[in-house]
Amino acid sequence: MNSRRPVNSDVMFLPLNYPRLILAIVVAPQAALLLFVVASLMLGMPVGELEMALMFYVPFAYGVEIVFGLPLFLLFNRQRWTNVFAYFLAGLGLGLIVALPLVALLSWSGQQTLLVLLLSSVGAGLSALLFRIVLHGIKRRSTIVGET
Fold it and tell me: Tens of pLDDT along 82-141?
């Protein structure tokens, strides 16, 4: 009596380098954080207010990465997508989707709403791009182990 589940031979995942994956998870949200800090300082936000905003932003960025970004990465890994532009576009879309409920709940002016949507989507796109670069490196075409 064999109680093990049969292995699905059709499922092919890209081989993962787990230390690089952990590094990518830790480092990637920092790209969006850096964009947020630079944009806030350029817009004249006082440093004290920026520090208070970061107390909310940092856990939020990591939470979004874990709840939305990792399943998206697993989908990309399952489909064997390693294209830099695919990661960037997925990050843009994810940032926009995550920012929409926040914008809907807060009553901001039109310019503030557009700025938040732009910063969120570009920040998430840069974060996804950094995640991909840390995980797979910078190369034109990735080679897949076992592929002929």
Answer: 899 999 999 999 999 999 988 888 877 888 888 888 999 999 999 999 999 999 888 755
Q: Is the dihedral of CA 55, 122, 86, 28 positive or negative?
A: negative
Task: Using DSSP, state whether 29 is helix, strand or coil.
Answer: helix
Torsion-angle region of residue 12: left (phi > 0), alpha (psi -120 to 50) or beta?
beta
How far lies 64's CA from each of 21, 57, 60, 61, 104, in Å?
16, 10, 6, 5, 18
Question: Using an 8 Å Cβ cutoff, are 102 and 121 in contact?
Answer: no
What sections of the chain are H helices per DSSP? 18-27, 29-42, 47-64, 70-79, 84-105, 110-136
75 Cβ contact partners less than 8 Å away, ≥ 6 residues apart: none
Q: What are 113's two structure tokens?
A: 């709403």
In whole angstroms, give the CA distance from residue 147 to residue 144.
6
